[in-house]
Amino acid sequence: MGAVNEDNAEMDLAGVPVPVAMEDTKPISIDELSPRTGDLPYLGWIPIGALIQNSYRILGQLGEGGMGIVLHGVDERLEREVAIKFIHPKHVDTEELHELFVREARAMARARHPNLVEIYARGDYKGSPYFVMEYIKGTTLEEWVAGHDQRRVGLDDALSLLDQICRGVAALHAVGAVHRDLKPSNVMIGPGFRAVVTDMGLAINLGGWAAGRERVAGTPAYISPEIAAERHVPPQYAHASDIYAIGVMAYELLTGRHPFKAKTVVELLRAHIHETPPKPSEVAPELSDVFDEVLLRALAKDPNDRIESAHALRTALALARERSSESSAPLRIMIADDDHACLRWTGKFISGSFPNATLDLVTDGATALAHAIRDPPSVAILDLSMPGLNGTELTAALRANPRTCDVPIVVVTGVGGARDWRLLLRLGASGFLVKPTDPDALITTIRRLLC
Questions:
Q1: For the segment 399-422, what is each residue's pLDDT rounded down to a tens digit?
Q2: What residue numbers does the annotated binding site cover?
Q3: Is 181 a catalytic residue?
Q4: What domains are there in the chain, each with its CATH number?
Q5: CB contact at 8 A, 179 and 151
């Protein structure tokens, strides 16, 4: 194991990077924009108001790390807010960090998924490379958890976030990339409780892994045993380090504490390599023991023994949640969709996950409104495009009626986009899913809204 400075005995281990890696990127909190706007200590050469490539107007700073600086801007051509990441000025002439910066942009561009931050463009400004990406108005997972004031996160909220993180990471793995620095500060929570994996500055293509170009990198609280011990693993197990990091986050979210207790970085790395964490249900007795096997498999020391993929992990968590459900309280779930095939499929899947639920299947918005007012559902699943009343109109009507104003609403669509979601969010919709709807994502969303 490489040498690690033990001077700081008391520290926040979750935010201390391995010394041989780049510095940890500070969390990008959109909510902190106001006090930080105008504070650009390293960017005198990019003043507020500057226009880059005749498109991107600089509004302020979002975050800063050892490798890069992220600015808030607006794309004046497309009239949308953006985040723009520049390589840090002190590293502009560092060839290795140039390569890492370009690698991050390419990894983000290859893996298009709602739970991965989207990249729009790449360019160069006065010798400094940059890329333009989606601006997510929200907070980091780290900040969101801290906002609970020592209270454990709700089970279904935690599982909804983990499900989304797994889906984003699975998309990254599907294009042959590995994140290598998954942690709560690298997950944003945006409107509609959408979780987005960000900051792929340490991502590596599996071709580079096979060629032996990987480097020890990551954050000690979430680093896998094989990386902590600097053991080379075959390319087919390279993604296992990401599974381990998600396992650590899952343990934290479901139990309220880290799997290991340590006062120094070295102690923590040794724990990752050698110690077996306590069973989650022993740490949090209110948590069902059906989660023990899932989390401990995700934290297996040997990559070969670990849960095999992000998709397998999200499936295992969903199954554990179904097994842990003790509620037999009757539910009434309304599904409104003029596509009869989608209506039947959605009803069949929901009834399998909620066997005690009464389903109200309707094919137009006007009928859905009448049924909801007569007998308010526990949750309503609405198609965006329907005759009678469309999903937007129906959402507004449900929110305006005192009998249905508090009914959780999930809108699904095969044609809508970000603009529709922003409007629905203002009207009071609780969730927004894209067709073809991922069944596990739908069930996870419903569970979260019912808790």
A1: 999 999 999 999 998 876 777 788
A2: 85
A3: yes
A4: 30-134 (3.30.200.20), 139-324 (1.10.510.10), 331-450 (3.40.50.2300)
A5: no
